[in-house]
Amino acid sequence: MYSGFNKFDISVEPDITIHGVQGGSGPAILFLHGFPQDHHMWHRAALALSSSYTIIALDLRGYGSSSAPKGSESHIEYSKKTMARDCALVMAARGIKHYYVCGHDRGARVAHKLSVDYFENVLKVVFLDICPTLAMYAKANKQFAEAYYHWFWLTQPAPFPENMVSSNPQEVANQFLGSPDRSLLRIYEPEALEAYYKLFHNPAIVHAMCEEYRAGGTIDLVDASDDVAAGRHVKCPILVLWGRGGMVGRTYDAIEEWKAVSETGDVRSAPVDCSHYIAEDAPELLVRHLGEFFN
Question: CB–CB of 215/79 below 8 Å?
């Protein structure tokens, strides 16, 4: 799926490695996937952009071929601060000091923290189909809870959600990837879909995914609150894209939510005619928006 790209594994902690692929040439773009996917989700956009950019697509810790350490009571192993550090270490190990970042879903939350903690490295950042985690929790309503029920289900103490997912992994995967009527399964390449299904059949990854959501509802909120209180905001230009078929544009004022955590107020946004899974449902539109923004 990544013809001409090289695979790599970078050690970020003892016994923890981050897997990724790199290809192309020119200014660097770091792609960070969301739940429940891995680096395969970017293959269409990555190949299209690789003639003008150096593309790096990672498997976040706990996903794909990256390490999936067991979580602790604090959930710090899967905090966005920890995961952002992983990304910064990988980019440094690849010899890339300055780069653009594009993150989707949970990867966009990592990208948010990366652009705050490593602002000297991130040139511009793109968030796909999210608003800041703190704002989404603070303004949650019935519509949000029904659409994002897994934010409250996967955060339950282990091993309750892990056991539920593992009792019927294929059904759970189809529920998230395909929507309730399975209509979205058509947008994925077979190789990518098979990679996503494998995540749900691996108990260590299922645990990691739950831990990442537990972190999102605990330690990540503390870190985000501390950043806001200390005035630590995103310093670089921001582009926010959301799928018209998703909840972000219907539930939140995305541009205002991101301006609230932007130091400069340089926030651009646009709805895209597709589902939540923008990179695979509307790759041509994504490539166009990224090219215009990064240029």
Answer: yes
How many distinct structural domains can be found in the chain? 1
Say if pTM beats, i.e. exceeds, 0.85: yes
Any domain includes 183: yes
1, part of any domain: no
User: What tokens were used for 137?
Assistant: 């929790």
Measured in Å, how far apart are the chain's first and last C-alpha atoms?
26
The domain of 73 spans 6-294
How far apart CA 18 and CA 31 sit, in angstroms, is 13
**Active centre residues (catalytic):** 105, 276
Return the SS3 of 10: strand
Chain segment 30-47, per-residue pLDDT in tens: 999 999 999 999 999 999
Q: Which residue has the tokens 């793109």?
A: 126
Give the 3-state secondary structure of residue 284.
Answer: helix
* Domain CATH code at residue 104: 3.40.50.1820
